[in-house]
């Protein structure tokens, strides 16, 4: 039978129902297959949090070459470029930067600190099994770092049905990718899997003819080996991953015609490893004791013109937890201890013998932080009609002292079609400005980092209402939500006070974010689904002149999706149109002729993505285009004609830099061994 085939055991292994150390990985019983003809983005109701699930089928509706491109059809998450030169991307959730979103890989903290600016490109899209996006205050199990939410990434598991997967991708702009994924079962308990990714940019492009390439040339190789042991009373997982990436940008397209070209060269080597161990003492009540350990080593060497920034970030995470349910699942308790360690070795220097006025004082900047903590979380689940989940953490940082993190979630489902969610909680973030904002070096702005930076902290409160209706016999999903984030302490990147400086310092007044979102999806006919969403975001902070709208942040966004899968999924047609509203630019300065250096505001723009997929028994071919409206920012780089001058700035980015882009790809999946 044609369509998307997913085994029940595989679906459970995704880990969508709880955030424990082994989210359903302990399922070992072979169950029959279930045919899912057209999965869609869905709201999860299994716990008290407001969580959206992006499935593997959703990810196939676009090219999704990496994690950063996996949110194309999701109205809640914005992924934008941090600058117009390095290709660094950042997530925005509830209108705020990705530093306030806790990134998890299978419920283990990851892509933190120095990995943040380019981390969305470190996980290949074909490696992904699902993504869970939790908004607002999240579970205290995974730590204190979540302010606006959590994004948990589930990758292909070795314990699933043995398979071999190949994904090939190529674009007309000269980018090629190859992905291999395979797993085998060594016996009824042991399994192993291998994931391999390679990409290369074979050409450079300068569509606006400003001398700078529109996108960096990236060469990346990555490999991951996974192991799993699924016993009746003991479950084990382990993995190791290696990544090597080189990205080159700047005036490399016309370098032979420029006497002293401005070049950006960033080299990254990264190791990751984790292990999970669970001892199951009461399988009927999900009783287990688990131990999770992970460690990452991130080495990066960055050249921005004549500025050199080198960082080695080593982080480690250790967590022990106890979980059990009572009274047929009416009560559940999770408690645990954790240790989080970060070690930064950073060097900032310059290759020129001249002292540049816009360089943060050269030298070594080493940072060390160890945080120990304990948590307890209680859940009351009255047959899914009422779910109350309350948790608290107490952590102690070697730099910032004690942190108390309370969080509360409630979900009320008076009837099957209607669900009401509410959450409130606090989150923290330890600032590491050089590691997290070093892309600001792609400008002539003086980089000013204040001393004695405080730890960031904020309260988040909000809720949502969702409903499933069946007008004319077709499914209609409706939802509305509102979230407020209020900072008690925040690290502010001030681009307004001095247009030739980037001042990073503590918040001196108020800072908040209001986010309101409504969305609907409807099955117009049997195989045709239409979705629409609108989001209003009001993000304001005190930059020393009273509350002002955050620059380079759109206030409005609309998203329209259309998905058509006729002939039982043999064909798949997907279209996404995103409309981003206007916003404020950082304050301009006056040029010699009396004109402003740039406009004080930017205008709305639209982007259209299309993809067509033809599915066969074991393989499929797909072709599509991105940004088919061909909208791109007119002057993404300020002062591009003189990158060594005082007006050069590549960080004023609010819209796409590339025009229309076309691609073609092939997926092969073989499951019979």
Task: Give a short synopsis of this structure.
By secondary structure, the protein is mostly beta strands. 3% of the residues lie in helices and 56% in strands.
Commentary on this structure:
It is a single chain. The chain has 673 residues and is mainly β. The chain has a single domain, classed as Maltoporin, Chain A (Beta Barrel).
Summarize the topology.
Layout: E1 4-7, H1 8-13, E2 33-36, E3 42-44, E4 50-55, H2 56-59, E5 77-81, E6 89-93, E7 96-97, E8 101-105, E9 128-135, E10 149-155, E11 163-171, E12 175-185, E13 190-201, E14 217-230, E15 234-250, E16 263-282, E17 287-304, E18 307-326, E19 331-350, E20 363-382, E21 386-397, E22 401-415, E23 418-429, H3 433-437, E24 446-449, E25 456-469, E26 476-489, E27 491-494, E28 501-506, E29 511-525, E30 528-542, E31 547-549, E32 556-564, H4 566-569, E33 571-580, E34 583-584, E35 601-602, E36 605-615, E37 619-626, E38 661-670
Parallel strand pairs: 8-10, 24-28
Antiparallel strand pairs: 1-2, 3-4, 4-9, 5-6, 6-7, 9-10, 11-12, 11-38, 12-13, 13-14, 14-15, 15-16, 16-17, 17-18, 18-19, 19-20, 20-21, 21-22, 22-23, 23-25, 25-26, 26-29, 27-28, 29-30, 30-31, 30-32, 32-33, 33-36, 34-35, 36-37, 37-38
